[in-house]
Request: fold
Amino acid sequence: MAIRLCNRTLVVLIGLSTVLLGHATIARAQSFTVFDAPNTNITEVRMINDRGDVVGVLFDSTQSNQVRGFVREAKGSFIVFDATPQATDTEPADINARGEVAGTYGRGFVRDAKGNITVFDAPNASTTFVSCINARGDIAGNFADAGFREHSFVRDPKGNIVVFDAPNGVPVSGFGPAINARGDIAGSFYDESQGARQRGYVRDWNGNFTIFDTPENTFPWVSGINAGGDVAGYLVDERQGRKVRGFVRNRSGDITVFDAPNASNTFVTAINARGDVTGYFGDTTQANKTRGFVRDINGDFTLFDAPNASSTVPISINDRGEVAGSFSDTSGGGKRRGFLFWRDGNASE
Reply:
């Protein structure tokens, strides 16, 4: 069924309940798998699905460092691919539990589990940027029209595309929306009715909008929405010298703002169905080294570094709690590598 915008768009301006919390750092047994995509010194992870398949980007040393996509299957085997034989910049963005990959190479593409690729454009688009795909195959992203004005879109599995803009707004350039299993979409936009103020939104599967603001003098960057409608991201806090901080907005509209322990800045990159959030932060106790974290639904943190890492950047967390990302390996001359991380369920304080 095609996804259609409702004729009457509901805009809800919510009153925020903001909570600032500090919680314990939990010591847990930690396990890592480190991997390199074939023929590259740069492996950039983009997403992990619930089966443990990972999708990302590599720079192929056998093809003049051409940008190519890869899938690392849960058992460790790799598939390297290009969106088309002529593509020189294939950038997968997401992979769902069926193994369907969505991404961009100037145009949008979706690759099914058998390797068949469908290429598409948003209507009247000069460029189409795909940011996500959900379990049933709905794809969302942004595009620039012929007049270089940006819009958002959602494409259903049959190829029907609906274009939308948040009320009085345009998408934050270069930062695509997120989609959950129901087809709810969350993102950030510039509200032109308020002097291009940056705000967040949730668009439900019927096309109705909820607009939200993070606390006073902050600018939200939405990075994920889970199946229950909880939204996660980060904000720039003007009250603290433009410090970057994490936030979670629950399905009731309450917003919790948080910092990773000893963080100079906290960047949230993903949220799973349980409400676990992952991301990275600068650790002020370690010369501002970039480290990874998982913050569970109770607000407790697990901090981690990939082996021999000068910087660790988690990008995605699946519903089993497996985290995927990339790191710079000091033992390999700064080689960029991929990792999988998971925590032992037996915690000790």
Observations:
- Residues 1-21 have pLDDT under 50 and may be disordered.
- The CA atoms of residues 244 and 265 lie 5 Å apart.
